[in-house]
Each structure stands twice: as structure tokens, then as C-alpha cells.
Amino acid sequence: MPVPSPPPQPPQPCEANTSAPVADARAQFARRTPQTAEEKARSRAFIDGKIEMVRGDPNLSEAQKAAAIAELEALR
User: Fold this and answer.
1) Between 62-75 and 37-55, two packed helices, what is the crossing angle to 10 degrees?
2) What span, in angstroms and rounded, lies between the C-alpha atoms of 8 and 3?
3) How does residue 45 score in pLDDT terms, banded at 50, 70 and 90?
């Protein structure tokens, strides 16, 4: 015969710890090695896909498309 388990308890509210220090750790996790050829190719393919999405977006004007494409091409 199975042993009955107690009903689940509702989650307890979390108290915010406002005294904890906030630090910017981005530099700690920054890339320290250059991208490999495969990573560069994947990044380029991703950006190329984004450019095609912008070109086909019916909700953007031609000026908006041109600006968005210029930003994406700068990332290549």
C-alpha cells in the first residue's frame, strides 16, 4: 500500500536582499581567445539571416530597412 505524501506547500515569498553589493562582472567573462573560423562562419550566417529577415519585413519602411541592414553589416 502506498504511503500518502503530504500536500505540496505553497511557495514562500522571497525577501529581497537590498544590502547585497551589485557589481559589473562582464569583464570577468569577456572572451579571452579569438574566434575560430567555424565560430566566425556561424556568426556571419546568423547575421546574414537577420539581414534577410529585415529585407522581407513588410512592416518596415525602406529607410528603416536600410538603417537596420547597415547596423547588421557593421557587425560582420
Assistant:
1) 180
2) 15
3) very high
Per DSSP, the chain holds a count of helices (H) and strands (E) of 2, 0
d(CA 65, CA 52): 10
Cα–Cα distance, 48 to 71 (Å, whole number): 12
Average pLDDT of 20-46? 89
Cα–Cα distance, 64 to 55 (Å, whole number): 10
Q: Could you give the CA distance from residue 36 to residue 26 in angstroms, rounded to a whole number?
A: 21
